[in-house]
Amino acid sequence: MAEATIIENAGNGDIAEWLAARLGEALESTEGPVTITVPGGSTPFPIIEELLTRDLDFSRLVVWPGDDRIVPEDHEASNTGKLRALFEPAGAEVVTLTIMEQVPHFHLAWLGMGADGHIASLFPNTDPKVDEERSILRLTPDPLPPEAPFDRISLTIPALLDSDQIAFVIRGHDKRTVFDEALAGQNDLPVARLLAGAKQPVTCFT
Ligand SMILES: O=C1O[C@H](COP(=O)(O)O)[C@@H](O)[C@H](O)[C@H]1O
């Protein structure tokens, strides 16, 4: 079971600062690309805007959406489209998830979490056997989340665990309770399954 460092009441600027420091270390540690996963939903985008103001060589950054909704990239629900609009002007590469994609080792897996304990698009109903066998999975959430009722494509738990470190941004009391229970092994939600397998440092911003 992972031990997580919890950083309480972090502002977007604090999180961006932490991310910039981790990316800076990764850029120093390799001459090749630095690979990260970035969550979708609503939480990450103001943090990314802050991150992009930091002095980093974004041209060596390869951004993998942790998941996406199966919609065109110019659809308002597309995580990839939003990531592309933010990161590409800074010189970073943004990958389009397909089930054919070869998934790399990530320097950082940055994740959000839904109040139902889903991470990326691995929902509580996602068959655990399936997400143990593949790196990328296409699925239909059951039930479809009303805020984004679309089929999904998602990195799986083994793919996310193939990373140097993991960072969560968990905002709101409901999510925090679910996360704390997952960390304590008191539920079996996707977030708990990830935490149970994490050997690397886990940092959680609330
Ligand atoms: O559907 C999704 O939900 C989660 C949480 O999103 P948020 O809007 O509550 O921050 C997100 O982490 C995931 O990547 C996304 O596609």
Please outline the helices and strands.
Elements (H helix, E strand, L loop, with lengths): L3 E4 L4 H18 L4 E5 L5 H8 L9 E5 L1 E3 L9 H9 L5 E2 L11 E6 L16 H6 L2 E4 L12 E4 L1 H5 L1 E7 L3 H11 L6 H8 L4 E4 L1
Parallel strand pairs: 1-10, 2-3, 2-6, 3-5, 6-9, 9-10
Antiparallel strand pairs: 4-8, 7-8
Helix pairs in contact: 1-2, 6-7
This protein binds ligand LXAUTJHC.
The ligand O=C1O[C@H](COP(=O)(O)O)[C@@H](O)[C@H](O)[C@H]1O binds next to loops.
Low-confidence segments:
none
The number of helical segments is 7
Q: What is the architecture at the second tier of CATH?
A: 3-Layer(aba) Sandwich
Q: How many beta strands in the DSSP annotation?
A: 10
How are strands sequenced across the largest beta sheet?
A: 1-10-9-6-2-3-5
What does this molecule look like?
Keywords: Hydrolase. With 206 residues, this protein is α/β, with parallel strands linked by helices. It has one domain: Rossmann fold. Helix content is 32%, strand content 21%. The chain is globular and about 40 Å long.
